[in-house]
Design brief:
- The protein is α/β, with parallel strands linked by helices and about 200 residues long.
- The chain has one domain: HUPs (Rossmann fold), CATH 3.40.50.
- It contains six helices and five strands; from the N terminus they run βαβαβαβαβαα.
- A five-stranded parallel β-sheet has the order 3-2-1-4-5, with helices on both faces.
- Helix 1 links the parallel strand 1 and strand 2.
- The longest helix is centred in the middle third of the chain and has 16 residues.
């Protein structure tokens, strides 16, 4: 079978992306990152999702000790009911670049040709590394960056709304009850952070 690396966070977008990759006939290898984020709930959900989807997975433990994000520093408050259109304090500096770089190394090592990521540029928080130009530029870089040829990034949800993502996930049988979106990581989702509000919009 053709192989693909899937960046799996445990959230709804990455879960739907995993199921899309499987539907496309890829043997998937999920990369789950424990990068010192605010909570570990999403890591546990990601493991469950990978197992249910019959996908191999690896958990990579890395640290970004310089912080500069509410998802890395618990002293920084997660915004609630945010109205600003600017880049929020939940942005983790260059996170997707770091994750994709690990995925690229893994893909080259196991001869996988695709790296799937659940990035979205429609209903999202405005992170710069989720924009279409970012992925277009990164794919140009991949042509020069490795010994292997033909590796590329796939972001199948990039131009989808959250409503469309939910609809695709339902058609594919994604177990949304095993996904976690809330930035705060409590016993129940807070319902007020960007991730909770965007998720709720999709299901409404």
């Amino acid at each position: 079978m053709k192989k693909a690396i899937v960046l799996l966070s445990g959230g709804m977008d990455s879960a739907v992306t995993l199921y899309i990759a499987r539907k496309m006939g890829y043997k998937t290898h999920c990369l789950i990152f424990d990068y010192g984020q605010r909570h570990k709930k999403e890591v546990g959900f990601a493991k469950q999702l990978a197992r249910i989807a019959d996908s191999e997975y690896s958990v990579l433990n890395i640290r970004l000790p310089w912080g500069k994000s509410a998802l890395l520093d618990k002293r920084t408050k997660v915004p609630e009911n945010r109205r600003s259109s600017g880049i929020p304090v939940t942005y983790v500096p260059a996170r997707n670049t770091i994750f994709i770089s690990f995925a690229l190394s893994f893909a080259e090592a196991i001869e996988a040709k695709r790296i799937f990521i659940g990035a979205n540029a429609r209903d999202f928080s405005g992170y710069p590394d989720c924009r279409p130009l970012y992925f277009k530029s990164f794919n140009r870089l991949l042509k020069k960056a490795t010994k292997a040829e033909g590796i590329s990034i796939e972001a199948p949800l990039l131009h989808k709304t959250k409503r469309e993502i939910v609809a695709i996930g339902r058609r594919l049988g994604v177990p949304f009850e095993l996904t976690w979106s809330c930035y705060k990581g409590g016993k129940e989702p807070c319902g007020r952070c960007d991730a909770c509000r965007l998720r709720a919009r999709g299901f409404r």
